[in-house]
Specification:
The protein is an alpha/beta fold. Helices cover 33% and strands 12% of the residues. It is built from 17 helices and 13 strands. The chain has a 7-stranded mixed beta sheet with strand order 4-1-2-5-3-6-7, with helices on one face. A 4-stranded parallel beta sheet has the order 8-9-13-12, covered by helices on one side. Strands 10-11 form a two-stranded antiparallel sheet. The relative contact order is 0.11.
């Protein structure tokens, strides 16, 4: 598992007491105290509900979640559902190893957590739209973005060998029940009975969960509920791998293994499943494919130069995100003059591919219910890492992310317009609309979407970044370069 998620989990679970003290201090200095306060409390599901759904983490511990109930009567039935991220376990062996961590077991969850993702912050200045909603935090302990659905293992047996003589050793047992963990929470919170406005969100693999489950969650909620989803940094690409000369995608191979290992067919978008041949069902585990079949309105927050995509897909040697040596300097310090022209071209090509996938669904001819805030910053989960700064200061064509989010959330009547960042090199057409692809801004303007914000193209010369407001995300790179 990457150091990013180890650090995130330590912040989330191990330092909640320190965060609580900081929250108290902040509230004293806030000229307008928040109306919805307090930590998120752990909820232990009733035993009968756990058994009904078979809701278990990888190690067989009962699934648990966290919630902060709103104190604002007007938002009694409004919710933010947040999927925790943390990668995937691609093999049975790696899932067994994961059982010893917070990403595979609920045994050591704290009673409360104080570290709030940005869209679950109780600070109305940082989070004006959702600070007074009910906040539901969904811990990630299944390793397959809440999609797994295998039969419950028999504790009287171990492994796959019925003749195993070591019947008392249960270390080989693994519970792949992510889909059922999610369904148990939807039932227990009361969302299935009463829900007014619901935002589904998450970062990284939690962002992927937001893509995958946007439609299934909406189908579980009352008819007429206002349901939208905001996946952050969850668009992981089935993209050729530079480490093997542009050969098969390491990530695609890994996610196919996850899909088959955990029997994820019933846990993903069913319209996607019904539309693809059986040998391609695993593609419904990818955001780029699931997006095509999602009718729940989405607002993508995504870098076209997402550092996870670059390090763990484009230049990875394996599923452990080991970057090939010749790319290390470029990816650790992309703002300096460490990237060759060949490497910059590879980054352009990957950005073009990502934009093509997004615009097929949210651009001209796509679904106008969707929107996207696509930026060029070298980052991953920057909204979660730098909440207030990103909300207010990260801009595309003069519009901050916070402003764009508010327009999309409040708009039920999506008309159309592309917004494109200014470019240092004078080329105002984004890479996916360049004339060498026979696309023009005029063609795009025939069916424009006001909630799609497109990135500028990084420069061939250092400093490569073309959007100066990306400064708010720069310490993402410094943190990643540390051991």
């Amino acid at each position: 598992m990457s150091s990013y998620w180890w650090n995130a989990l330590l912040v989330l679970f191990a330092t909640h007491a320190v965060a609580a003290a900081a929250a108290v201090t902040a509230s004293r200095n806030d000229p307008q105290p928040t109306r919805n306060q307090g930590p998120m409390e752990r909820v232990d599901l009733p035993a009968e509900l756990v058994q009904k759904h078979g809701a278990y983490c990888l190690d067989g511990s009962p699934y648990k979640y966290f919630i902060r109930r709103t104190t604002v009567v007007d938002h009694k039935h409004d919710y933010v559902l947040y999927f925790q991220g943390g990668g995937w376990c691609y093999t049975r062996e790696s899932c067994i190893q994961r059982q010893q961590t917070y990403l595979g077991s609920s045994l050591h969850y704290p009673d409360v957590i104080h570290h709030d993702p940005t869209l679950m912050s109780t600070n109305p200045w940082t989070n004006p739209l959702f600070s007074t909603f009910n906040h539901v935090f969904l811990p990630y302990c299944d390793g397959a973005s809440f999609t797994g659905s295998t039969k419950l293992p028999d504790p009287s047996k171990t492994g796959d060998d019925e003749n195993d003589d070591n019947d008392n050793d249960n270390q080989d047992l693994v519970w792949f029940r992510g889909k059922h963990n999610l369904e148990s929470v939807l039932e227990h919170t009361g969302l299935m009975q009463q829900a007014n406005r619901v935002l589904i969100t998450g970062c990284s693999s939690g962002g992927l969960s937001s893509y995958i489950h946007a439609n299934p969650i909406r189908l579980h909620l009352p008819v007429g509920a206002y349901v939208k989803a905001l996946p952050e940094s969850g668009l992981f690409l089935f993209y050729p791998n530079n480490a093997n000369g542009g050969g098969p995608s390491i990530y695609e191979t890994g996610m196919r293994q996850v899909f088959e290992l955990q029997n994820c067919t019933s846990g993903v978008n069913q319209q996607c499943i019904q539309s693809l041949p059986q040998n391609q069902h695993y593609k419904c585990m990818s955001a780029e494919t699931s997006l095509r079949y999602t009718t729940t309105p989405l607002f993508l927050f995504q870098s076209v130069h997402d550092t996870w995509n670059m390090e763990c897909i484009l230049t990875a040697q394996n599923n452990q995100c080991d970057t090939i040596p010749e790319w290390v300097a470029c990816l650790q310090h992309p703002y300096d003059d460490n990237c060759s022209m060949e490497q910059i071209q590879a980054l352009w090509d990957m950005a073009d591919y990502l934009l093509d996938q997004v615009l097929a669904s949210v651009g001209p001819g796509g679904d106008r219910r969707h929107g996207a805030f696509l930026h060029s910053c070298f980052s991953h989960c920057s909204l979660e890492e730098h909440g207030d700064a990103v909300m207010k200061n990260l801009t595309v064509q003069g519009t901050s992310f916070g402003e764009a989010l508010e327009k999309w959330w409040k708009d039920d009547h999506h008309q159309a317009t592309f917004v494109v960042e200014d470019r240092r090199d004078g080329d105002l057409s984004p890479p996916h609309l360049r004339t060498d692809k026979k696309r023009t801004m005029a063609a795009a303007a025939t069916n424009r979407n006001p909630h799609v914000y497109l990135p500028c193209r990084i420069s061939a010369n250092a400093p490569h970044e073309c959007n100066p407001t990306c400064e708010v995300t720069r310490n993402d790179l410094a943190a990643r370069s540390k051991p």
